[in-house]
Structure formats: structure tokens, C-alpha cells
User: What shape does this take?
Amino acid sequence: MKDERKAKVSGIKITAVDTFLVEGNCCFVKIRTNEGITGLGEGSISDNKVRTIAQCIKDLEGHLIGKDPTNIEYLWQGLYRWNRWHVGILFSTALSAIDIALWDILGKIADLPIYKLLGGAARDKVRIYPGGSGKSGVQFAKSIGCNAIKTGPPVTKVGDHLTVPMPWNLGRAVKQIEEMRIEGGDDFDILIDAHGRLTPTMSLEYCKAIEPYRPFWVEEPIQVEGSNDALEWLSDHTTVPLCMGERNFMKWGFQDIIGKRLVPYLNPDVVHCGGISEFKKIAAMAEAQYIQVSPHITYSKVGITAEIHLGMNCPNSVIQEMGSYAAEPLKKSTDWRDDLFFGHKFQIENGFVRLPDTPGLGLDLNEEVAKAHPYESQLRPELRYEDGSVEDN
Assistant: This one.
């Protein structure tokens, strides 16, 4: 068996890079080789640019055909540097999908899970949290053994989820956190995601008002594009821990935030930040500044599995969000997504998840189910302020 595996490695070459566009703004990539070993990756995005990403992946195929898929670092550097225009979330997402698939191939060749290839486990299990709000959200989290939950400030009008009132209802937003803290008690973590919908002024007054309720973090408290000056200003004026990173990509997109230690938590998304290879480097950069990381939840079981491998390996990874579709006991319903992948099931118990020791990601795409649920363009909601001006989403 050892000699057979060695023979496959010595002659393995990439023969094709196929993409699958699936309902829910999902894009999956399957890298095929002359040895019949395939790798699965994900390049999904939360708006209607999935076709663009799939085309970008296909545009990169020419740099991959005939090359050894086990030379992951070489291929990552080549895909990045051989393309003259190599910045932007669409290119980064395409590169991330390919990188995840290459790690999957390497794991199958080595007959080891990806986290073992990264250096092994830094912990026995990964702490997780679901999403929810109010007392019922806290009660649900506790009922499945979790002592943490993520919520978001109610920014829009009651009964109108597209309009932000002027002024916004700060009291309502603070009351929600107060009620959740009372319900959760002191040994329960409340994570807050503002989705970049607050202006710096709104974010500061919100953070100051919820300081007594000890939130774990406020994620994406503001939009950060270009300069991080506004983030630095906010960080200097509140004691609430801040979290950024889901819309940053490549190590260079995190360099200033890490170097100035503007936040105590980073949440890179493995499907956008440059893949497993780049996430590992970003986490190491953060570790040097005593910044903890929390992989941002992705769009399907592929990305989530890749991030749990990273959560198992990265010493400064602290917690992981899990989607309700991922596994029991978080699942609330059953549909076609349960049949979209072959392979492992998450082992979730008492607020933690473990990974089985299956090679690579431990997953494969059910191509027939994927084809039965083709991609349909989904635009994000068009948020606005009460005066009709455009709000971030």
C-alpha cells in the first residue's frame, strides 16, 4: 500500500478543474487528477456574483493543468503572482476554492485529515455557537449544550426589515442584550454581529451602552474600506472587544489591523481570505500579537469543515460558528442539502464539535444532487434609511 501511494504521488497531475453552481449562491470546485483522486473546494459568496467566481476559477485552470497538486504552496504563489491583477474578493474567493481542493487531494494521498497535515491538533475539540436572539435564542443554545450564541442589533424598523429609522432605536438594541444577559447568566457568552450596518457614531454609542453586559465581541461594528482609521478611533473609545475580518482577504488585508492590534479577535473566512494556506498564515500573524481568531461561518459543509480543521490546528482559534444546516442537534429541518455531500457527519456534543479522522476534508460532492438544484441569482436585500438613502448590507 505504501509503495502504491508513493507511485501515485510521484506521477500525479491535475487534469481538469470543474465548477458546480448550486442553489443558495454556492459554487463548488472539483479538481481532478490522472490518478482518479479528486479534491473538493468551495467558492460561494453571499450575493449574485457566483457565476463570476466560477468563471475566474475556470480562467485559472490553465495554470493548473499538468501540474502536481501536492505542491500547494507553489501553486498558490503561482496563481496569485502569475495573474497581474491579483487583488479583490472575487479573485481571492476563486483562489480559496482551489486551495481548499488541493489540500483535500493531499489529505487523500496521505490518508490523513487536513488538520494532521497542518501540524496536528492543538486541542481535542472546537467550541461552537449557534445564531439566535432574545430569551428564546439563549434557551435554544443552552438546550443543545452551548454556552454561547451570536445575535445582531435590531437596526431596522419593527415590521420593516429594509428601513433603518432616523434616529435608530438604540434603546431597543440595548434592551435585547440586557434580556439575553439575564437569561444566559454570567457563564454564558453573547457574540454580536453588526454586519457593518452601523456608522462609527452609531457603533460607539451602542458599544458604550452594552459595556455593562460583557459581550464576547461586536463583530463588524463598522464598514472598513481602505483606511482603518475609523476602526482605530472606535477601538480607542470602547472597552467592548471588537472583531473584524470576514470581508478582508489575503494576509495583506489583515496586516494593518494586526500590526496596530486594532481588535482582539479576527474572523477570516476560509472561502474568501485565500484558502486554508492563507488562513493558517493570517492566524500565525495574529498569534504573534496575541490576537485570537474565530473562523467566519461559510456557506456550506465544505467551507465549515475546512474551518473546523483550521480550528483544530491553529493554537489561537477560540470558537466557531455552526450553521443550522450543518448537523444535529443544530438542524431544525431536513431538505435536499442533507444529500448534497457524501462523507462524514459532524460529531457535536455539549457545545463542541469533533472531526472524524477521514482523509482530506472527509467529504465529496454528490454531483447529481448539485445538478438537480442549479444556481439562481439571489440579490441581497436593498436596505435604506428612512429618508430613502442607501444603507450598507
